[in-house]
Amino acid sequence: SSSNNDIFSSATLISFEAGNLSGLCKKMQQFVEELGPENKYKPFIDLANSLSIQHSENHSSPLNIQNLKENEICDLFLKSFEEWPAEKLFPVIDVARLIISHSNFKKAILSNESFLKTILKLCKKYSNVGSVCMMVFRFLTNLLCYENWNDSNLTLQEIIEFVCFPILNETSSSTTKGFYSSISGILLNISIKSSENIFNDKNISNQFLKTCLTVIRKNDLNANKNLWIAMGIFLRKILENGKILNVEENIVSEIKKEILINPQDESLSLVINEFRLLMK
Length: 280
Known about the structure:
With about 280 residues, this protein is an all-alpha fold. It has helices at about 20-35, 40-55, 70-85, 90-100, 105-110, 115-125, 130-145, 155-170, 175-195, 195-200, 200-215, 220-240, 250-260, 265-280. Helix content is about 65%, strand content about 0%.
């Protein structure tokens, strides 16, 4: 019941390419040095420094690194996910988020079965650590931007299950704008990439919509706009695939309650008006 030129049809994938690279380098250096004078994680400092020089200039070119090969760096990441305390993991995952856009690391990471599975599982392992979840959300958001992301061993069902876990189980107490923008980013990209096999899975579809609603109620304006768009794209695809009966009735009624609101922000109001048309 809406045109092909509407907000949902024209939505595009988003990515998190920016970052405080000098701050990231300092944190990485601090955390690596705290492990002791001689430790295997020293290459992380070189990697962060290389990013600070190259990433802002061209974040798709091969990233120049010395001494270690790409697959050895991936193995080092895996060891850090196991050995580092949760509160110190965020710069490691942030570096992973940035290096995956560089062609040499994109290939190495997509072909490393353990890497992607392990980083995804951090959402459950550290679901109560907002900084870890936020960085994993951003990493996955960037991953889904690549046409060949499904050359990896991850499925969208898996990504939805792990991403939604800390939200639906309310284990993460993070209320920062960065956290909300990160969850809205990954949910938007999932909705754009989703296809029929997702809508055939009743449990996964409902998890996705419940997560959107849960975060929308946190009332973060910028996140909410992307979340409404994500939910609109997802619901439209469900309708087009004839799978609306897979959506729990209470979720439909909760969505109908939410679209009665009239936000002050004009851009959000436009999105919700589009949603009202969809729900007729």
